[in-house]
Specification:
binds S-adenosylmethionine, Rossmann fold, Alpha-Beta Plaits, eight-stranded mixed beta sheet, 435 residues, 45% helix, 21 helices, N-utilizing Substance Protein B Homolog, Chain A, four-stranded antiparallel beta sheet, alpha/beta, 3 domains
């Protein structure tokens, strides 16, 4: 593909995203490329990079375009991106939209008028409101301010950065050192992660899905923060563990490893496709102490097993604000209403899951959100309603899990963020049932 054809295809992808505003962008992009199998790998990457670039900067580009009185079409967004982000100059944009074969048709007089107004403006305009300047949705701003205070600009920049590729070594199959050596022999250098004893970071995000190490189940892709949640669960050999909201079993796998494949894990979820994915991953990783169960309405599974689990991990559905750098479209898609609905849902899930914990057992509540409303405020409300549970200070939960070094933070709970920990934004609270 020529460079101009790639720009044109990126605009077509933006239009496809725009026509499915509630669908996750990566699902739309997968469909887009599946319908265009003639596009090769290098072209795909170039097209997706440009389209994601626009998605990342969408709020700021909208702000600029809105001031000219125009509507943000795919073509205008791309042209504004080339102008304001790539700083290609007006002549460069005209050249990209030159109407030659496979290139975009020339700019219309109206598009030219808009772009002439944007030409020379800084992307971060002094008149921009705080939310747009920081690239944060209005609905999340109060919560983010409460979480980060003075450090908000730094934290917002962290949530915009590019995410590293982290691997969790499958201790059922190998050691961290041996996995690193296997990957190095396949041309993938890695570094040990800062906090997780099982983690390897791939510094330049090389593709690893075709490596032997991955295909043989020696490593799984999992952000270091996510690994730490599984670690705090402190699941030990012989225990009975429930992974409530198990999804595709990311944390089930990690807990199976700390349990040395001994004891039982129930991986529970309401989604059939996710549990199907979980079953495949468990097999590939050689886990044989876990079973999946689909939670359905009217299901008596939870009731029948009340107060019988040593550990219950609730990895609750959330706004995903902590993973915005991986899913830049989520900050555009999620609304205030979604946020309110999720808070209600999290409360119900936590209540139900808590009934599974035996006296003396631990309940771990986790999200990939950095908003206190989904995190410590949920924990506080839960503890107000459940006098039989106490919060375990992070340092104690960390030590319980066999960790010698300092815990990743000083607060009562674990609150990770890209700018402070180099991980995605995650929250975890460890609660112990007394009676
Ligand atoms: C954050 S994701 C879990 C990710 C997973 N633990 C992992 O590490 O890969 C949240 C999950 O909660 C599930 N979920 C949503 N509502 C639920 C409910 N009422 N009960 C149990 N699981 C639910 C979703 O299907 C989704 O898989």
């Amino acid at each position: 593909m020529t460079p101009l054809a790639r720009i044109s295809a990126a605009i077509a992808l933006l239009d496809a995203l725009e026509s499915a505003p509630r669908r996750p962008a990566d699902a739309v992009a997968n469909d887009f490329f599946r319908a265009r199998r003639f596009i090769g790998g290098g072209d795909r990457r170039a097209i997706a990079d440009r389209a994601w670039g626009v998605v990342r900067e969408r709020a700021r580009l909208d702000w600029h375009i809105d001031r000219t009185g125009a509507a943000p079409t795919g073509r205008l967004l791309m042209a504004a991106y080339l102008l304001l982000v790539e700083r290609g100059g007006l002549a460069g944009v005209e050249a990209a939209f030159n109407g030659s074969q496979y290139a975009e048709r020339p700019l219309t007089p109206e598009e030219r008028r808009v772009l002439a107004k944007l030409d020379g403006q800084p992307l971060l305009h002094p008149k921009m409101d705080e939310a747009t300047r920081l690239n944060l949705p209005e609905w999340a701003l109060p919560g983010l301010k409460a979480r980060f205070g003075e450090a908000l600009p730094e934290a917002a920049a962290g949530l915009e950065g590019s995410a590293p590729l982290d691997l969790r070594v499958n201790l059922l199959r190998t050691s961290r050192e041996a996995a690193a050596a296997t990957l190095a022999a396949e041309g993938i250098p890695t570094e040990p992660t800062r906090y997780s004893p099982w983690g390897l970071r791939v510094p330049d995000r090389r593709p690893i899905l075709n490596t032997r190490a991955f295909q043989d189940g020696l490593v799984e892709i999992q952000d270091e923060g996510s690994q730490l949640i599984a670690l705090l669960a402190d699941a030990r050999p012989g225990m009975k563990v429930a992974d409530y909201c198990a999804g595709a079993a990311g944390k089930t796998l990690a807990m199976a490893a700390t349990m040395g494949n001994r004891g039982r894990i129930a991986a529970l979820d309401v989604s059939v496709p996710r549990l199907t994915g979980a079953t495949k991953r468990l097999r590939r990783a050689g886990v044989d102490n876990a079973e999946t169960h689909l939670l359905e309405s009217g299901d008596r599974w939870v009731k029948r097993r009340a107060a019988t689990f040593d550990r219950v991990l609730v990895d609750a559905p959330c706004t995903g604000t902590g993973t915005w750098r991986r899913n830049p479209d989520a900050r555009l898609r999620t609304t205030q209403e979604d946020y309110a609905e999720l808070i209600t849902k999290q409360r119900a899930i936590l209540d139900r899951a808590a009934s599974l914990v035996r006296p003396g057992g631990k309940l771990i509540y986790a999200t990939c959100s950095v908003l206190p409303g989904e995190d410590e405020e949920q924990v506080r409300d839960f503890l107000d309603q459940h006098s039989d549970f106490d919060a375990l200070p992070l340092a104690e939960a960390w030590a319980d899990a066999g960790m010698k070094g300092p815990a990743p933070g000083e607060g009562p709970h674990m609150a990770l963020a890209p700018h402070s920990h180099g991980t995605d934004g995650f929250f975890a609270a460890v609660l112990r049932r007394r009676t």
